[in-house]
Write a structure and sequence with these properties.
The complex is a heterodimer.
Chain A lengths: L3 E6 L2 E6 L4 H8 L18 E6 L6 E4 L9 E5 L20 H6 L11 H5 L6 H10 L2 H8 L7 H4 L7 H16 L4 H11 L4 H9 L2 H9 L6
Parallel strand pairs in A: 1-5
Antiparallel strand pairs in A: 1-2, 3-4, 3-5
Chain B lengths: L6 H16 L7 H11 L8 E3 L9 E3 H7 L2 E2 L13 E8 L3 H12 L4 E4 L8 H4 L4 E2 L8 H11 L6 H9 L1 H11 L13 E2 L9 E2 L5 H15 L4 E2 L2 E9 L4 E8 L5 E11 L23 H8 L4 E2 L4 E10 L11 H4 L4 E2 L13 H12 L6 E2 L4 E5 L2 H7 L3 H5 L1 H8 L10 E10 L2 E3 L12 E3 L4 E2 L10 H21 L7 E2 L1 H12 L7 E2 L13
Parallel strand pairs in B: 3-23, 4-5, 4-12, 5-9, 12-20, 19-21
Antiparallel strand pairs in B: 1-2, 6-8, 7-8, 10-11, 10-22, 11-12, 13-19, 14-18, 15-17, 16-17, 17-18
Helix pairs in contact in B: 2-12, 4-9, 4-16, 6-7
The chains are: A alpha+beta, B alpha/beta.
Chain lengths: 224, 534
């Protein structure tokens, strides 16, 4: 018999094998998940979860798919959190701090409690990226927030009502579109294709008999 | 930290590391690859396939798990809903909220069509979100769409539909530009040059990436754009049956609220299936790198309504799924780990193949190492081979892993394994549905009018195996194209009387073929509960 631990799903006790994740433990207990389960690989943020170990004062936040169960773990999932996402036209917004003042003015009400950073399921320095956003330093905000999976736990802990993941999303889009250097070879290639420069080559491949295609493939030069 | 049982093998890997880095393993010849695949690739195991008895692909072979849901009962009968009173009416109905569905929605909206997305989970809950390694496009001076074409055509065993593949490669640079203009943050040098690497089977370095969150970065940006455009997204609502009109053209879908089970009717002038893949069908018992909802729904919906499948018998087993620790068993280890220089090593510390063969060849080679050659590493739950990640830091310099593949570091760090210092254990995992619904170059199915398909639910773009980075590309190229074409087509469509007569017709075919089954489909979600209720 494998070793088991006691966990408390929404307060109710279940005995589960100790090697399970919180998500697989819920399934072991009999939950057929619809909410709170997405990619099961730590990328989508669907399975934000809050837990406390009995006797411990501290609350922990995690992704259920990426966290092993522990004995006496009290678990509550947070499958949805009402983040505020402002609607904007990416073609028309200014790439300056005024955009943050217009769309997410609450970031300036940050009281510096750092609860967002402490609760981040990805271990990001959330308060720092909000500070960058306040200053209109979108490049740094984008870099610092890049691994965000938008699970929303930070916002659930924020006394100022900030929707951190949406602030970071805006910063990354501004950075990607307006601040990152343009790409000449990409622009050139798009133009060449529109110009029909490759039509003849492609047309030849469309017609080429199978054995000639095999020959071409098997003897192609591979860049080191 | 690995337990002592791995110690001996780990020491061999470490000792051989410098020599293994210097080693340039030979690539296999065409003949060697052919023999390897025939002997060890899961697609070639004849006893794992069933012959379809009914439907447009009658006589074709597909995995047992797929034939079970293709030749199954509908979740409803024609009288379950009132087709005269649609709950939604739109020009373009998009089923699926992944990368293809979102791209289609943005383009259909841009074209001025009324468009809505229905998705059984949330928008962005899709394999797109989990694609790590990158997206291909021939945009460097030493590259061309023609070279990209040859790489993909050969890698797919010369089976791709050429009109689809040429569209894929020729529209690729424009797809990157489109994403970039939407604000997707591609890895670039200071002068704006894209940082590109090889993928398995590429002959030019054309893999564009956003660290190892490439798909996540693309998906969250597309999702943000869909929401900015106020495109309606009906989430936690699955399409469970297509609706045709009296002329047999696609004209909507029956929807089911995943939480309340309420049935709803959506009427549309054109329908786009963008439902993604099938990893959660666990073909041949393999673990999967796929999203929770990857259950081949679109194939089932399309097939029952008369649409034809292409290459549904070919699946992609990603060579490097996690083999250890068991909590992340089957999760994806991006091919980019090998692009950055890590090699595959057996229990004795030996490099047993070139790390950048195509995925099917690499998977078969790992399976051979762990079976016939008996040179795999026993993980306690199965077998695996080493992927020597510390090589990346030695080749690219300290810090390369945190800069280029932070998600991989984070995934293993949670279990006490620092991939900068320790190698990881991998084994093939079910990753991608190569086949799917058969479409023309306008993304419309070849035999159901007004039914469009985009993304992983399509068959024929890649042939019988797909190269890394061509899937993120295909969801963008074909997603956009499906959106544009479905919006254009909707302008000329007059929807006839709605009908679900095809359900009964299919039931009759099942009965006539002597198929008795309890299965209802689409499956929608896998069931992993251990304690079964009454």
């Amino acid at each position: 018999m494998e070793n088991t631990v006691n966990i408390f799903l929404f307060g109710k006790k279940y005995e589960v094998p100790e090697n399970l994740t919180i998500m697989t433990a819920m399934e072991y207990a009999g939950y057929q998940l619809v909410r709170g389960c997405g990619c099961r690989n730590g990328f989508c943020g669907a399975c934000a979860t809050i837990y406390r170990i009995k006797g411990d004062r501290e609350l922990h936040a995690c992704l259920a798919c990426q966290t092993k169960v522990e004995d006496n773990m009290y678990i509550a999932t947070l499958p949805f959190f009402p983040l505020v996402k402002q609607v904007y036209d990416i073609e028309k917004i200014p790439a300056t701090e005024t955009v943050m003042m217009q769309l997410y003015p609450e970031i300036y009400a940050c009281i510096g409690c750092n609860a967002c950073t402490k609760s981040c399921t990805q271990g990001l320095n959330v308060m720092q990226y909000i500070a960058y956003a306040q200053r209109g330093d979108f490049e740094k905000c984008a870099e610092e927030s890049f691994d965000c999976v938008m699970c929303g736990v930070c916002s659930s802990r924020c006394p100022a009502g900030i929707s951190h993941p949406q602030v970071a999303m805006l910063a990354r889009r501004i950075n990607g579109k307006y601040l990152a250097p343009g790409c000449t070879h990409l622009e050139d290639r798009v133009r060449e294709i529109k110009n029909g420069d490759f039509n003849e080559l492609i047309e030849a491949l469309m017609q080429k008999p199978l054995d000639e295609m095999k020959e071409l493939y098997n003897n192609r030069e591979i860049e080191k | 930290m690995y337990s002592d049982k791995f110690k001996q093998s780990l020491e061999r890997v470490e000792k051989a590391r410098d020599n293994n880095i210097a080693l340039e393993p030979e690539r296999m010849t065409a003949k060697q690859k052919e023999d390897l695949l025939a002997a060890f690739h899961p697609d070639y195991r004849q006893d794992q396939f069933d012959t379809l008895k009914i439907g447009p692909n009658k006589g074709d072979k597909v995995p047992f798990e797929l034939s079970d849901i293709l030749q199954a009962h509908s979740r409803i009968s024609a009288d379950s809903v009132d087709l005269e009173k649609p709950d939604y009416e739109t020009d373009v109905l998009i089923i699926g909220g992944g990368g293809a569905g979102a791209s289609a929605a943005i383009e259909a909206n841009e074209a001025g069509a009324d468009v809505m997305i229905v998705t059984k989970l949330r928008i962005g809950d899709a394999n797109t979100m989990m694609a790590e390694g990158g997206i291909q496009a021939a945009d460097k001076p030493n590259d061309s769409p023609a070279i990209h074409f040859v790489d993909a055509f050969g890698g797919g065993h010369f089976a791709a539909k050429r009109e689809l593949l040429s569209k894929l490669v020729c529209d690729a640079p424009e797809a990157i530009k489109w994403l970039s203009d939407l604000g997707v943050e591609f890895d670039k040098d200071a002068d704006g040059t894209m940082i590109t690497t090889h993928g398995g089977g590429t002959s030019r370095k054309r893999m564009h990436a956003a660290k190892d969150y490439s798909g996540a970065e693309i998906m969250r940006t597309l999702r943000d754009e869909v929401l900015n455009r106020n495109i309606p997204v009906v989430d936690f609502t699955a399409a469970i049956e297509l609706i045709l009109d009296e002329n047999g053209n696609a004209a909507g879908a029956v929807l089911m609220n995943m939480e309340t089970r309420e049935l709803l009717v959506a009427k549309a002038k054109t329908v786009i299936i963008a439902t993604g893949g099938a990893g959660r069908m666990h073909y041949q018992g393999f673990p999967t790198s796929n999203h929770y909802g990857a259950t081949a729904d679109g194939l089932v919906l399309g097939y029952r309504a008369g649409a034809k499948l292409l290459y549904a018998e070919t699946l992609q087993y990603h060579p490097t799924g996690v083999a250890y620790p068991e909590q992340i068993f089957g999760a994806l280890v991006t091919e980019k780990v090998r692009s950055l220089g890590a090699k595959l090593i057996n229990v004795n510390g030996e490099v047993f193949m070139h790390p950048l063969e195509t995925r099917d060849v690499a998977a078969a080679s790992i399976i051979r190492e762990c079976s016939e050659r008996n040179l795999g590493v026993d993980t306690g739950d199965g077998q695996g081979v080493w992927l020597d990640t510390p090589m990346i830091e030695k080749i690219g310099g300290e810090g390369t892993i945190m800069k280029r593949i932070p998600a991989m570091w984070r995934m293993f760090d949670k279990y006490g394994i620092d991939i900068r210092k320790e190698p990881i254990l991998v084994y093939p995992t079910l990753h991608y549905q190569n086949g799917g619904l058969d479409i023309d170059a306008n993304c419309m199915t070849t035999n159901v009018e007004n039914l469009f398909v985009a993304g992983e639910a399509v068959g024929g773009i890649h042939g019988k195996n797909r190269l890394m980075g061509n899937s993120l590309l295909d969801i963008i190229v074909f997603g956009r194209s499906a959106g544009i074409n479905a919006a254009a087509k909707a302008k000329d469509v007059t929807v006839g009387k709605l009908s679900l007569a095809h359900i009964e017709k299919f039931e009759k075919e099942l009965a006539d073929a002597g198929i008795t089954t309890e299965t209802v489909s689409p499956k929608l979600l896998p069931n992993y509960t251990k304690q079964k209720g009454i």
